[in-house]
Every structure is written in structure tokens, then in C-alpha cells.
Amino acid sequence: MDKLLEFGRKAMFYVRVLSGYEERRIRSYRLQLQNRLEQAQVRKAALKKIPEQVILSEVRRMVDEMQALNKKLEETEAAIEDYFKPIDKEAQIIMKMQLEGEEKTMREMMNAMQKQALLEKAEADKIANISSVDTNQQKPDKAPTTNHAEVR
């Protein structure tokens, strides 16, 4: 019985081969395999692109975050500048007042120093005149000589 079944199977195989059924089946199987390979290659290429796309999207996201942070920073700096503008103006006014006060005291000191120098010069001239008069009285024979006093 087994031999009969084996013979029947072989006979059916020969019939399928001779009729071309087995060849069509093999071709269709080969085409299925080829389609699967192509689809696998497409998926593989897509998977290779995914990390690049992920990296690019991450970079874009980071750039967007950095731009947002820069914008917030600029807005904060502008707000700080606006906040300190009145204080800066007051500080400038105070500095001008201090400079004007210092200039005024400097002018007063210069005037006082000039007056002091004039007083010292006048006193030195008086002393020089007195000493020359004294020397003229002690030595009437000689002609009067003028002494030059140092001026500070």
C-alpha cells in the first residue's frame, strides 16, 4: 500500500511538471521571494533614514529652543535697561552735580592760591624794600642796589 501511495505521488508530480503547473508554482514562489526582498530593502533604507530624520528633527527642535531662549534673553535685557533708565539718568545728574561742585572748589582753591601767592609776593617786596632802605641808610656812600626776592 505504501508503494502504491509513493507511486501515485510520483505520478502526480510528473503530471504537474509536464503540465507546467510546478514551473508556474516555482516562478510565483520566486517572485514572492523577490518581492519580499525588495520590500525588506525598502524597509531597511527607511530604517537607515529614520536615525538621520530623528537627528535632524532633534537638531531643529534644539535650534528652535535656542532661538526662543535668545528672544527671551533679549526681551529680559530690554526690560532691565528700561527699568534702569531712570536710575541711570539720576546717576548722571548726581555725577554732573558732583563734577560741578569739584570744579567750583578747584576754582576757589586756585583763586585762594593766587591770592596767597600775591600776598606772599607783596610781603617779599616789602621786606626787600625795607632791607634795601636799611642797607642804604647804613652805607650812604654806595649807590642803591636792588635785591630780587624769590617768588613762590
TrEMBL record:
The lineage of its organism: Eukaryota, Viridiplantae, Streptophyta, Embryophyta, Tracheophyta. Residues 30-116 form a coiled coil. It comes from Nyssa sinensis. Residues 129-152 are annotated as: Disordered. This is Uncharacterized protein. Keywords: Coiled coil.
